[in-house]
Structure formats: C-alpha cells, structure tokens
Amino acid sequence: MSAEKKIPQHLAIIMDGNGRWAQQRGKERSEGHIAGMEALRRVVRYAAEYGIKYLTVYAFSTENWGRPREEVEALMGLICKGVEMEAQQLCENGIRVVVIGDRERFSAEVKQAIDNIESMTAAGTTMTFVLALNYSSRSEITTAVKTIAGKIERGELQASEIDEKTISQALYTASMPDPDLIIRTSGECRLSNFLMWQASYAELYFSDVLWPDFDRDAFNEAMQVYAQRDRRYGLVKK
Ligand code: FPP
User: Fold this and answer.
1) Per-residue pLDDT tens over the stretch 168-211
2) CATH number at residue 209
3) Do residues 171 and 4 touch, judged by C-beta distance below 8 A?
4) Predicted TM-score (pTM) above 0.85
5) Which of 110, 119, 197, 210 has the highest count of CB atoms within 10 angstroms of its CB?
C-alpha cells in the first residue's frame, strides 16, 4: 500500500474532556469548551495539512440538551460565534463546511449562522469540514427509516428494493465516504451514538489526552497508529 493510501480520507473525532480539563484547573466548564474550540481550530489546520478530505467532529449531541441550562447556552453561544468568526478564513482556505444533525431545535440565530457558513463555503474543494450538531446516530437512522417508508407509501420504492445503499443515501452523510478513522479523546472508549452506521469498518483510536490538550504531537501519533493498522474489511490478508 502506498504511503498516500495510509492517510484517512475521512477522519471523525469525538472531542471529549473539555469539562474535566476545566475542572482540573478550577475553571467553569464553559472555559473548557472555549479551550476545546481552540483545539478544534488547530486540528482543522492539521487535517488540511495532511491532505485529509473529510473531517467530521461531534460538536453537540442530541443528548447534550440535557446538560445544565448555562452550559447549553454557553455551547450555543460558542457554536454561533465560532461559526461566524471562522467562516471567512475557512472560505479562503477552500474548506467547505457541512452541518449534519437536526437543526430545527436551534434558535433562529444559530440556524442563520449555520446556513451562512454552509453557503459561504459551498465551493470549497480542499477539505469538507462536517459539524455534527444536534446529531445522534439513532435519530439519524430513525429519520432515514421515515424517509424510506414515505417513498414506499408514495409508490416510489418497493420494500424488496431496499439495500445498504438505500439506507446510506437516506442518512445526513449521503454524499460522503464512510469514516476511515474515528478518534475519541479523554480516555473514554465508546461511540456514544456517533456515526454508528457509517463506522462499520472504521478504525477506532482512543487517546487519553483531554480534547483541549490535543496538540500536533497527539494528532501525529493518531495518524501514525492509523498508518500501521491493517484494514481487512472481513477479508483475509493477501
Ligand atoms: C465534550 O466534552 C465536548 C463537547 C460536548 C462540546 C464540544 C464543542 C466544542 C469544542 C465547540 C465546538 C464549536 C464549533 C463552532 C464546532 P465534555 O464537556 O463532555 O467533557 P467531560 O467529559 O470532561 O465533561
């Protein structure tokens, strides 16, 4: 396999540990999210430098609404401000931003910021940066099932015609390749409702580093470990 093939085409990240990072420093959890935002800005740059074509980050899960009100508000503010502040630079760097998840629950302000960044960056070809916002795999799959059932009801599709492609194409990620590598930081080893259909053959990498501390060395190490993985997709090695 060539060195080029050993770089993930699609990297997905569960950015975890902002709260613990803040707690260790006697700060508010929201300060951990601000530091997490800085880490994200760095990682977008590293990913683009590596030539990764798709970077997906789990920025807000459907479960996160259950956090204390002040924390949810702080996260919404950060997402809104972050999206507004970064749009120009992402656009200049040819980075296309796509949001996956159910955006209906967001305020008009957040929805507007998301719509703006998507349209501003739509022509970018360097890398697609996917923000999972109010996202969970189960709700994504439930929505997909409803879409497919609607097609059957309208006579546009026969139940017997449903195959894996039908399902993939009904997901938010329809036009994207599946993730090759999923990184989760902070020592937690689970997928937490993230890209569960798409992750079928993804390599998983768990780092003990808390997300705000995820620096170039931590990123390089993840890339090195991925490059050494032997992906067989259920086949035997030639
Ligand atoms: C998990 O850490 C992190 C989050 C729930 C939020 C991540 C969001 C950002 C980094 C900002 C994203 C902004 C944009 C514009 C995409 P945690 O709070 O669960 O940490 P803990 O497990 O230590 O409590």
Assistant:
1) 999 999 999 999 999 999 999 999 999 999 999 999 999 999 99
2) 3.40.1180.10
3) no
4) yes
5) 210
